[in-house]
Amino acid sequence: MGMPRPVRGTREGMSTTEVRRGEPVTTVLTWQVRPGRERQFEEWTRGITRCARQFPGNEGVSWLTPEDGHRYHAVLRWSDQHRLAAWLESEERAHWHRRIEDIATEVSSERQSTTGMETWFSLPGTTVQAPPRWKMVLTTFLGAYPFTLLIQWLVTPHTTGWPLPLRAAVFPLVLLPVLTYLVMPGLSRLLRLWLYQRDGH
After folding, report:
1. 31 by DSSP, 3-state: which?
2. What pTM did the predictor assign?
């Protein structure tokens, strides 16, 4: 799996303060890799990613690395906290971890977990609290509205003869990946001073 370098980083498992069982959860774990061992670590990430994807409830694993190249961040998406815990405590995961004891170390202080829209608004390399929900809603609207117009203009007219369930699926299939991987991370960085200001405005 390729290592997307434009992103400055995330953590392979955001703080697990109050994540409800049965609710989708995103976990970010951070790894500090010894200089010169990056290639070995990247090979290891591909193996442990394949292993994680075989576990029930896994909804995807992404690996990111910041500019310095020595900290790697695994973003794990799981269907609920219970199944995530089953993976984190599994013998399979422990086996993979033993394989890199002399290559990399997990930065446990940066492990965090979150649910809902907070995943879109996490600040790379920090454990700062998510913004107020009204700010997240407004930012999400700013990101979604232009693409909603484009979909209605360019795509919807060509699907009028399709069955309703298929027409209804087009919108989320197009919009959600664009928001998750492109629009919302960019907006959260662009508006970070407003989103995370502490004065309550």
Report:
1. strand
2. 0.51
